[in-house]
User: Fold Oxidoreductase molybdopterin binding domain-containing protein from Sedimentibacter hydroxybenzoicus DSM 7310.
Amino acid sequence: MIKKNVIKNIIIVCVLMLLTACSEEKASLIIKIENEVTEVETDNIYSSTDAIDFPAVVRSSGQKPVETEYKGIELIKLLNENRVEADKFTRVTFNASDGYRIILDMEEIKEQSNVYLCFERDGEILKSKQQGGNGPFQLIIRRDPFSQRWIKHVNEIILE
Ligand SMILES: Nc1nc2c(c(=O)[nH]1)N[C@H]1C(S)=C(S)[C@@H](COP(=O)(O)O)O[C@H]1N2
Ligand SMILES: [Mo]
Assistant:
């Protein structure tokens, strides 16, 4: 009888460990305006009708440039979708989970077909830093060919 219980407990512990290992941290993105924080629904990003595919050349350190296709939403459209009045702000700060930070002028964000929040590359959802990817979200500035400002792992957008 005791033995049966021990085996049962071991099985329960194993199942729990397996579940923890499999569960990934959910992709998250927030928009901050003064003290107001808006959580952007990841599913809304993935299923947005504003999302488009575009070609980009990826220059990763120590590697040859690679031609790829990214999928993302133009940032100004993402702001619109989340009822942010872009015209009220002049400066946008992008924070990444690894501490990287980029600040852009709203003027640059308003330039047509330039700044995109991306979530897919070559048909695959961007993986998180933990999983060895550039995602879950990566800001791509198409007119920045050297890609220093292609901020990986973006998780916070601050409008000022
Ligand atoms: N979050 C984050 N984004 C980042 C960086 C970084 O360190 N962290 N490095 C930048 C730089 S300097 C370059 S050249 C590109 C490509 O970086 P990689 O070569 O590490 O892929 O990402 C940019 N975006
Ligand atoms: Mo770089």
